[in-house]
UniProtKB/TrEMBL annotation:
Signal peptide: none annotated. Keywords: Methyltransferase, Transferase. GO terms for biological process: methylation. Residues 74-162 form the Methyltransferase domain. It holds the Pfam family Methyltransf_25. One of its GO terms (molecular function) is methyltransferase activity. The keyword Transferase applies. InterPro entries: Methyltransf_25, SAM-dependent_MTases_sf. This is Methyltransferase domain-containing protein.
Amino acid sequence: MSKTTYGNTIDKDKDAMGAGIAAFFADNNDDYCVKVYSDFSEPDDIPVPLLFREEKDMPLIETLALDACKGTTLDVGAGAGSHALALQKRGVDVTAMDISTFATDTIAKRGVKKVISGDIYAYDGPKFDTLLMLMNGIGLVGTLNGLAEFLVKAKDWLTPGGQLVFDSSDIIHLFEDEDGSYLIDLTAEYYGQIQYWMEFKEHKGDKFDWLYVSYPVLEEYAVTAGYEIEVLHVGELNHYLVSLTLKNS
């Protein structure tokens, strides 16, 4: 097993998600949940056991994403490592990456052979054929400006002909009024830009920006950045899966 570090990792005192992952791996307590707060909805719970599911228990959009992975693959924001583990079992040369050392320690203990701790933006190692970002992993870009910057930066991490595979959602339905109109302030920031913060036991995280991007907006940004975009799946509530491949690679 190889494990390397790039850039900064999350302070363990503030790493609610990672702490939940490590605690479940140690205790196997099915009641463990990470509390999620946001600036637009009531608090929600993420059941930690969900993050440890096997491929047979994954939704279609995730198994289709695994099918789309080709060549060397970097699972960005790997969490508990379930997608990386599934790819490894398929024979894919996969590396799991997460900014949480709680998470990467757990991923390694679960048997993923190649693990990176740290910030994707600090990565400067070997390039990959596929960057995989599931469970709305593209959300880590935070804002539309962040998306534009990320799509340019990702070219440094991809081999010629490499691809980004990720899912996102258009959350406009959350703003729908009873009469079918949408209560959106057109003078405000893009409605898919959300702030979250998390809590697990004594671990309380800082607020962070997260992006849900509609397909038409993503397509515009992808084309501008020089990618060819392919829709791999569209599910309920405009939840979609795409592959972005660099043009003229």
